């Protein structure tokens, strides 16, 4: 690897290790020393890339958490049948709901709950992700109405907010219970709700 590429590799390693530490402990309890130890870099290397801990946290949000979340709703962007796309996405996410997500929860929601009241840099970034997520559902449902795949009487903005809040709530309950049982029960209910968004035959 060329010397020119090494700083990029170091920065990415710091981001990944910071993500792991923040996901496990929360941002305010995350230890810079633990991040440095895991990344195998010096404090000087950290401050070469990030001015302070907040700057590191913002970069984790922008470069790791945001793309992770966007992948959850991206299939909705082009789906002709948003109900089927949403149900498929939820089932796929359940398959990936492994021990880490059950143990530590959703990295986006954790940061939203912890940092939104305390830091505007975090809050504005988190609000941007949330707005994009809700917007993706709203656009998909509206497109579904236009194509006759979603009930014409559906309140699209309200439904989009409800769906996103239900998804995040299910992860939160699973984290609290340290079990996927509640998640599975809630997921069944959410899928039943989504199926009822189709027009009557």
Automatic annotation (TrEMBL):
Residue intervals of the HTH tetR-type domain: 8-68
Pfam family, one: TetR_N
Name of the protein described by the UniProt record: TetR/AcrR family transcriptional regulator
Top-level taxonomic group: Bacteria
One term of GO molecular function: DNA binding
Keyword set, alphabetical order: DNA-binding, Transcription, Transcription regulation
Organism: Stagnimonas aquatica
DNA-binding region: 31-50
């Amino acid at each position: 690897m060329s010397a020119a590429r090494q700083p990029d590799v170091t920065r990415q390693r710091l981001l990944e290790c910071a993500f792991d530490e923040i996901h496990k402990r929360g941002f305010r309890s995350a230890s810079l020393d633990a991040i440095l130890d895991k990344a195998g870099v010096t404090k000087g290397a950290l401050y070469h890339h990030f001015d302070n801990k907040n700057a590191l946290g913002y970069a984790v949000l922008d470069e790791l958490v945001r793309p992770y979340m966007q992948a959850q709703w991206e299939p909705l962007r082009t789906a002709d049948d948003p109900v089927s796309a949403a149900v498929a996405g939820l089932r796929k996410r359940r398959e990936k709901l492994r021990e880490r997500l059950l143990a530590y929860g959703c990295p986006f929601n954790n940061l939203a709950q912890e940092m939104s009241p305390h830091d505007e840099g975090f809050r504005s970034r988190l609000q941007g992700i949330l707005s994009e997520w809700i917007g993706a559902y709203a656009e998909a449902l509206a497109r579904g109405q236009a194509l006759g795949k979603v009930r014409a009487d559906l309140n699209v903005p309200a439904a989009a907010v409800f769906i996103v809040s239900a998804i995040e709530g299910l992860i939160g309950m699973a984290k609290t219970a340290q079990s996927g049982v509640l998640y599975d029960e809630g997921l069944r209910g959410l899928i039943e709700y989504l199926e009822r968004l189709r027009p009557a035959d």
